[in-house]
């Protein structure tokens, strides 16, 4: 029987979740939260690296972040579409791990797979609670769903102070050597032309708004609930 998660993060490719929220992941696993990542594809269309390389890098990043579980649905890279079969696969993953909180990529991004992933997760989170949808498994009502940024940053609804865990984020990103570091036989892509440095600058600028060294931003489609103002 699978272990129930507190947080389940979806990405189209291994490294998506790390780019957007590795600091937040590390912060929560350090506090004892059970956190998992589900990558939808093996990123087989990547210009650099191989599927096997990407699997090894994803596992290394998972260990650095203290994940409870990391899975991959093996859906087609550059073939993600809002189809019944894709929604079913993702819904089954949500029902398997019963997370209280789900994260998905923000719905605007330069990469079409990130946009498709966002739409798919929203559909699956909704369907997961329907008793008559895939009735062979029990419905799951996700308490909260939030969105993280990958390539393109928009206005955040809230930020998480990740200063104490930022070195872990950089280590997790550096695990993806095939993507972020130019090596023998690699070709130039936006990812290996100073991408990690730009992510660090982004998170530093976001934290600066609240006098924090580093922060990661998130969006909620629903109003945030506040019990009191401190």
Q: Secondary-structure blueprint of this entry?
A:
Blueprint: E1 7-11, H1 16-30, E2 35-41, H2 51-65, E3 69-75, H3 84-97, E4 101-105, H4 112-128, E5 144-148, E6 158-161, H5 166-174, H6 177-180, H7 195-208, E7 215-219
Parallel strand pairs: 1-2, 1-4, 2-3, 4-5
Antiparallel strand pairs: 5-7, 6-7
Helix pairs in contact: 1-5, 2-5, 3-4
Walkthrough of the structure:
One of its GO terms (biological process) is bacillithiol biosynthetic process. It comes from Paenibacillus silvestris. By secondary structure, this protein is of the alpha/beta class. It has one domain: 3-Layer(aba) Sandwich (Rossmann fold). It has seven helices and seven strands; from the N terminus they run βαβαβαβαββαααβ. The protein has helices at 16-30, 51-65, 84-97, 112-128, 166-174, 177-180, 195-208, and strands at residues 7-11, 35-41, 69-75, 101-105, 144-148, 158-161, 215-219. The chain has a seven-stranded mixed sheet, sandwiched between helices. β2, α2 (51-65) and β3 (69-75) form a beta-alpha-beta unit. It is globular and about 50 Å long. The termini are far apart. 43% of the residues are buried.
- Name of the CATH class: Alpha Beta
Report the average pLDDT across residues: 96
Order of helices and strands: EHEHEHEHEEHHHE
CATH superfamily membership: LmbE-like
| Count of alpha/pi helices | 7
User: Can you give the helix content as a percent range?
Assistant: 25-40%
Describe the global form. Answer: globular
What is the distance, rounded to the nearest whole angstrom, between the alpha carbons of the first and last residues? 41 Å
Q: What would you say the CATH architecture is?
A: 3-Layer(aba) Sandwich
Specify the structural class: alpha/beta
CATH topology: Rossmann fold
Number of self-contained structural domains? 1
Largest sheet features: 7 strands, mixed
Report the strand count. 7
Low-confidence stretches: none
What's the arrangement of strands in the largest beta sheet? 3-2-1-4-5-7-6
Oligomer: single chain
Estimate what percentage of residues fall within beta strands.
Answer: 15-25%
